[in-house]
Write a structure and sequence with these properties.
The structure is a homodimer of 390-residue chains.
Chain A: H1 12-19, E1 36-40, H2 41-56, E2 61-62, H3 72-80, E3 86-88, H4 91-99, E4 105-107, H5 114-126, E5 131-134, H6 137-150, E6 154-159, H7 170-182, E7 186-192, H8 204-227, E8 234-237, E9 254-255, H9 265-268, E10 286-294, E11 300-303, H10 307-310, E12 318-319, E13 326-328, E14 335-338, E15 351-355, H11 359-363, E16 368-373, E17 376-382
Parallel strand pairs in A: 1-16, 2-9, 3-4, 4-5, 5-6, 6-7, 7-8, 8-9
Antiparallel strand pairs in A: 1-10, 10-11, 10-15, 11-14, 12-15, 13-14, 16-17
Helix pairs in contact in A: 4-5, 5-6, 7-8
Chain lengths: 390, 390
């Protein structure tokens, strides 16, 4: 009879307990209970260094977006590798990061309800490095009233739209910047212009042209802002797909790249300046460990990592070491692999390592991320803002 | 100047505090911080009653699947409305439900690692109503060894595949059932046959035919199991899309419907026995409250509920009261609505109520679900197994 000898499958609770004394844990990532979210620390650090190095000669700073990692520990690494601040998309993310010890936070989405504005002011009251975006005259006035009530002068940037998702249209932006500047309890710091849909344009040349074309009206706003004598110290935007394109935008100050630390299947396929097919500027560091559950059916494997572990984003997850595997995470609970050729004969219980389709929403499915080095878990980081979509 | 008067946006922490004394809370769901997950309790109760009533004359029981709600409070309602047990997809879900006071649990996925088997036995040791699935000779033997080590005789069902996702193929099932029956520390209780892909076949007639056609080999396994003198007390499967079809399967004992309590955009469009276009057997009770963030762009609205609040499932979210709105949750943080015609002029800060694309993975994005009655929050339920994909 087969007797199970190994406890292969340490839970988050067991790993947290092992991490309690702060020393490296030493458990192999192949021994984690799955699905488990892991980041290779050497690769993460290399990505941090790459962004720093590549921006060094451009005059641009980085202000990485925490919607990607939702994790104060990673935000601290970014700040200690030279980033000037951290962005958040939601007020609850800002709260979680601030509670986790992060000070220079720029919230890129506008708060449009009284309660969210009050929460932003609660952060601002304790944290002079907190900056928030506005894009509407009404919220400018509400924010000023709230700042007055809290006894602060709150730092504000105006979000100027690129496209039609968020922000004030460029043609109305100067008036809004002037309105902010007039508020006694607000301090205008500059403007944001993030082009979300530019990040995943495939092919560097096309991405380059589109990014610079679309930002043109915003550049004119920026010039008008300067000409009007308004404080133009921040002109922020850009992401992992355009970090080396926004450097060409006159006046641009900092890049809000997020995914560069992790990478994912989506970013791999956009192509880079040196490689039209694969985006090799940064190295995939984020993976999900999964377990094979079923091997009965020819040219198929079923795993325990479905849509709740990987999301439905496309392109699909990449199975490391098995280039012929096609991964389908369309089932909520199960991953389905089909293949013509495999590098080994898989058995029930075998582990697989997957590059996720899209890092941001995948991270949001997990409570912890295991930091590994040479496949051994070194640290357990809480994804403190996991699920903080408010 | 506009002065904010209302605190429109109670957080989960504030709502938990209001719920602490157990009496109905009374806050309108339109006053919740968004995105917020809500269930209309009248509709939820009506769905519970509908399943009970519709199964009453068929001889079938219900054993609802908790992968849908991940919430002990809802499992308790299901048991108190006559369900004979609760299914879970993952061992961590079973642990959360058992910790939440739920006893009759059937785990429908097989545990294939030593640690997960040990965790299952830890539940079984304390909970004689715990049943678990197996689908492989190796795990049968491991389970028996573990049961012996824990000093129990563990209740087991064999998962017999419908399709190629999980379970033992029908042609090998009888041998596996016999292997289970021979293990001194396992007690064979019967078999599972869940046809995941049948649930969303559009059109009742087609769904009916396909479901009965695909299950035929499993019915033969069931007949052979009975003929061999094996314990055939459980023959379980079916879901919300086939709950009134599996009643035609000879020997079938219980239905694992999950989504029937909530409904979603996916189930609405499969059609029912009385309505070929819309599945009206159950009533949509689950919604996400969202807030309008941007109204600048013609025939567009941006909301705060994107893929992290609604998932990428299709068909898209349905905006209640606005049949002409097309909802796109393709952005992680933002929902994008396009429309030709709206029933009102929307302003920044306005709330919307959305029927989710697919209930199971949407619920998995939230920590709490607000139970409402006539739009007032009555209770705050913890989604205890949220994120429990292990």
């Amino acid at each position: 009879m087969w007797i199970p000898k190994r406890v292969s499958g340490y839970t988050a609770a067991e790993m947290r307990a092992k991490a309690a004394d702060g020393s490296p844990i030493g458990v192999s990532k192949w021994e984690l209970d799955t699905p488990a979210l892991c980041v290779d620390l050497d690769k993460l650090e290399s990505n941090l260094q790459t962004l720093k190095t590549k921006l060094a000669s451009t005059g641009l700073a980085s202000r990485p977006h925490a919607k990607t990692h939702k994790c104060p520990a990673i935000a601290r690494l970014q700040l200690s590798s030279g980033s000037i601040g951290i962005c958040t998309a939601k007020i609850s993310e800002a709260e979680a990061l601030f509670a986790g010890g992060i000070q220079p936070i720029l919230m890129t989405t506008t708060n449009v309800t009284a309660s969210k504005i009050a929460r932003a002011m609660t952060i601002r009251k304790k944290n002079p490095s907190f900056i928030q975006a506005v894009d509407h005259p009404r919220t400018v006035r509400e924010l000023n009233d709230a700042a007055k009530a809290f006894g602060v002068r709150a730092d504000v940037v105006v979000d100027v739209a690129v496209g039609t998702r968020s922000g004030v249209p460029p043609e109305q932006a100067l008036a809004l910047l002037q309105l902010v500047d007039k508020q006694p309890n607000l301090k205008l710091r500059g403007m944001l212009s993030y082009d979300g849909s530019a990040q995943h344009i495939k092919g560097f040349k096309k991405r380059y042209d589109e990014t610079l074309r679309r930002i043109e009206p915003n550049v004119q706003v920026f010039e008008a802002m300067k000409k009007s004598g308004l404080n133009a110290e921040i002109f922020s935007g850009g992401g992992s797909g355009t970090y080396n394109i926004v450097t060409r935008i006159p006046g641009f100050t900092d890049v809000q790249a997020g995914s560069y630390i992790f990478m994912d299947a989506q970013y791999l396929e956009i192509g880079g300046i040196d490689n039209e097919e694969v985006f090799t500027d940064f190295t995939p560091s984020l993976t999900v460990m999964a377990t094979v559950l079923n091997t009965y059916f020819p040219n198929r494997l079923t795993t325990d990592a479905g849509a709740k572990a990987l999301t439905l984003n496309q392109p699909p997850a990449i199975v490391i070491g098995e280039p012929n595997f096609k991964y389908n995470a369309g089932s909520d609970e199960f991953g389905a692999i089909t293949y013509d050729k495999a590098n080994k004969k898989y058995e029930v219980g075998d582990r697989l390592e997957l590059i996720v389709p899209h890092c941001d929403p995948a991270v949001n499915e997990y409570d912890v991320i295991y930091g590994t080095r040479k496949d051994k878990v070194e640290t357990v980081w809480e994804i403190s803002a996991r699920g903080h979509s408010q």
